[in-house]
Amino acid sequence: MKSQDILILLKLISLQQQALEDDQLKEQSSARALESSLGISKSEANASINRSIEAGLAHKDRKLGYPKANVSALLEFLSSGIKYVFPVKPAELVRGIPTTFDAPQLQSKLKSHSDYPYVWPAANGQLMGQSIKPLFKSVPDAVAQDERLYEYLALIDALRIGNAREANLAQQLLAKRLKS
Questions:
Q1: Which of 40, 50, 95, 157 has CB 3.0 to 4.6 Å from 99, enough for a Cys bridge?
Q2: 21 vs 169, more confident
Q3: CB–CB of 127/94 below 8 Å?
Q4: Distances from the Cα of 118 to the Cα of 39, 80, 81, 160, 166, angstroms
Q5: What is the extent of the structural domain holding 35?
Q6: Residues 100-123, mean pLDDT to the nearest whole number
Q7: Are 56 and 20 members of one domain?
Q8: Quick one: 60 and 115 in the same domain?
Q9: Which residues of 65-100 are buried (b: 16+ CB within 10 A; e: fewer)?
Q10: Is the pLDDT of residue 152 over 90?
């Protein structure tokens, strides 16, 4: 499993939740569309989808053949293993895009215990904070195009770095949003 596998699975869920027509969903779920929206090469997007299918985190739609995330299996993995498989340590102060409970969609849910907000380093970032390495290098660009994906990745960062209280809340919010 690679970190971009999680990014692709979350993007597939975001696309499914956007209530697109089947043909649109098939087109948006293609490796070429994922390449342009996530900054992951077409071949790596295909390899990622195949790894996820093999791990039981995704499957192909029986009718149209496009990939779909297995939400319950993904939630189980995220809840139990993400912080061990893809650990994170806050680093230096940088300009970036807010993540964890400092992300705009989550600010009202919980106040971070850190003196500085957590951010993904980004040249166009407007907030100074403690750097957190995103799951994949293209995350700052990908979340600019998809607010749902941004919220999912911020919650996952809260799972990766948060104390028990923050992680529990992040887990509940993520489950609620991914299943909707």
A1: 157
A2: 169
A3: no
A4: 23, 22, 21, 12, 13
A5: 3-85
A6: 80
A7: yes
A8: no
A9: ebbbbbbebbbebbbeebbeebebebeeebebbbbb
A10: yes
Provide CB contacts within 8 A for 149, sequence distance 6+. Answer: 10, 11, 14, 142, 143
- Where does a domain end: 43, 58, 85? 85
Return the half-sphere exposure (C-beta side, CA atoms, 13 A cut-off) of residue 1.
Answer: 22
Helix (H, G, I), strand (E, B) or coil at 108: coil
Q: Following DSSP, what letter does each residue of 43-76 receive, concatenated?
A: HHHHHHHHHHHHHTSEEE-TTT--EEE-HHHHHH
CA 107 from centroid of its chain's CA atoms: 17
pLDDT reported for residue 126: 85
Q: Are residues 97 and 171 in the same domain?
A: yes
pLDDT over 70 (residue 110): no
**Could you tell me the CA-to-CA distances from 38 to 4, 31, 49, 64, 145 in Å, in that order?**
9, 10, 14, 23, 9
- Please give the backbone phi and psi of residue 123, each rounded to the nearest 5 degrees, phi first: -60, -35
Strand duo 118-121 + 127-131: pairing:
parallel
Structural domains in the chain (count):
2
Per-residue pLDDT band at 102 (split at 50, 70, 90): confident
Burial class of residue 44 (count of CB atoms within 10 Å of its CB; 0-12, 13-18, 19+): middle
